[in-house]
Specification:
Shape: globular
Distance between the termini: 25 Å
Bound molecules: adenosine-5'-triphosphate, magnesium ion
Order of helices and strands: HHEEEHEEHEHHHHEHEHEEHH
Strand order of the largest sheet: 6-7-8-3-9-10
CATH architecture of the largest domain: 3-Layer(aba) Sandwich
Number of domains: 2
CATH class of the largest domain: Alpha Beta
Strand content: 15-25%
Number of helices: 12
Structural class: alpha/beta
Number of strands: 10
CATH topology of the largest domain: Rossmann fold
Length: 290
Amino acid sequence: MNTQDTDKVKGYGGGGVEAVISVDEVTRQAAQIAEDISIEDLDQLVDGEPFVKIDHLNAGYGKMEILHDFNLRVGHKQSLCLIGPNGAGKSTILHSIFGFTQIYSGQIFVGAQPSPMDVTKLTSSEKLSAAGIAYILQDKSIFPSMTVEENLWMGGFLKDKPTEAKQVAEKIFDRYPRLAARRRHQAKVLSGGERRLLEISRALVMEPDLLLVDEPSIGLEPRFIDMVFEILDELQNKDGKTIIMVEQNAKKGLEFADIGYVLVSGQLAIAGRGDDLLSNPKVGELFLGG
Ligand SMILES: Nc1ncnc2c1ncn2[C@@H]1O[C@H](COP(=O)(O)OP(=O)(O)OP(=O)(O)O)[C@@H](O)[C@H]1O
Ligand SMILES: [Mg+2]
């Protein structure tokens, strides 16, 4: 027994978890159901041409390799949700796309065919300004003592002209009256749901094509969770953004996303359409609360 055996799995699925099992046990059982997945299998899940391609990625922090030969495909205007046990490396995938990890080998391409951009070695600011990639951070991206509108303007700090950021901010206020009503309030007074809306909106000021979203529902009450998924749905289906998300609420995430990947110990274990994973009994037992 090691100390990790006492880490209980919390928050997976929508309902109650009767038999609570340890992270190590979930990882062990999930590794047993892992399938052999080829890049062709991943291509089959893509609608049209791929917009994001990750090929044979080995990446991690310092000398510690977390992701092993990881591949990913998602089409333009599609959404993909990553699920898996705590510590599997889900956030590390988003970090790698955005330039926060060491990449030892492999490549990441973003953009429409036939000439996607190789973003493997770009810095995070290049990804944001030149490659149209935005990473939605939780909490820490908001400046609590600045007003809501100042926070939005800050989201456009990489734009060539500050006035452009202000123009986009106005469009965002038109769209989200909830935020507009609080534009001159300090961000710290916002409710949890409003704060999440500001975090998402802030990333939108750079007018990205690809949104990387880590656990959008974490810490929110159910009514706000629904609001966040409605906003993401609109961003995908009305604005045509491509979305890659990590979601601990596997049920919500898979209901939302076109494509679902189960990651176990830094490797892709199962890939399928979101609906298919939702009805996959093996996925259900481990990640959807039985
Ligand atoms: N900045 C970092 N420096 C060093 N190691 C890290 C860093 N961030 C994460 N790790 C390690 O990488 C591994 C994968 O972590 P990651 O955060 O990607 O997992 P996750 O699947 O997102 O888990 P969770 O569901 O708990 O968010 C873990 O062992 C973690 O300790
Ligand atoms: Mg994570």
